[in-house]
Amino acid sequence: MGRGFDWIDDKFHVKAPHKRFLQRRIPPGLSYLYCLGGAAFCFYLVLFATGLLLSMYYIPSETEAYDSILHLQREVNLGWFIRSLHKWSATFLILCILAHTLRVFYSKAYRPPRELNWIVGTMALVLSFASGFTGYLLPWDQKAYWATEVGTSMAGTVPVVGPFLLNLVRGGVDVSQATLSRFYSIHVLWLPAAMSVLLWAHFHMIKRQGIKRPL
């Protein structure tokens, strides 16, 4: 691998411009708790890769969504494994971000000059929950349907703008094909794009500000 990478570097010169990006000062006394953010990023990469594979077989249609999941589970080679990997990576992503948030709060790393990074990280946590919620509907089975029915109905309880929010989330009055299409678009396009921007900002600020020393 080393010789192969040296050959690539000889052609494209990728080491020099990224050397400073890949190297950073690490304060003494860090524990594995400081690796939770990196672990969350690894799960995000797994989600991205498995999501691309799942999108090749999934059909976001009222009449075909559930059957496409069954086809993926039963007939596609390693389809069950890819779907399970996607599901559990999403679970561990949320757990790692939650644990990372608690660690940052405990170590008081949210204080200036890192307050903006704290806000960005909190937004990433919210997006991870939103991704889990929108992805839950995609199998289009009874459990997913009624969970979405209950979850989206909460938007309708907001004073004054409740009906507008409910229609915005569902794409109509009821959970239907419009809701499935909307959730699929949000899940595979809008949320990954927004999460990628937030992660870039998060890592950029960490690079510039450094890692806070442990208490």
UniProtKB/TrEMBL annotation:
Report which residue ranges the record marks as coiled coil: none
One Pfam family cited in the UniProt record for this chain: Cytochrome_B
Q: Which UniProt keywords apply?
A: Membrane, Transmembrane, Transmembrane helix
Q: Which residues cross the membrane?
A: 32-59, 88-106, 118-138, 183-203
Domain of life, per UniProt, equals Bacteria
All copies of domain Cytochrome b/b6 N-terminal region profile, residue ranges = 4-215
Does Membrane appear among the keywords?
yes
Q: Which CDD domains match?
A: Cytochrome_b_N
Q: Does the keyword Transferase apply?
A: no
For this protein, the record's Gene3D superfamilies field holds: Cytochrome Bc1 Complex, Chain C (1.20.810.10)
PANTHER family hit by this protein: CYTOCHROME B
UniProt-recorded name of the protein: Cytochrome b N-terminal domain-containing protein
Q: Which organism is it from?
A: Candidatus Magnetobacterium casense
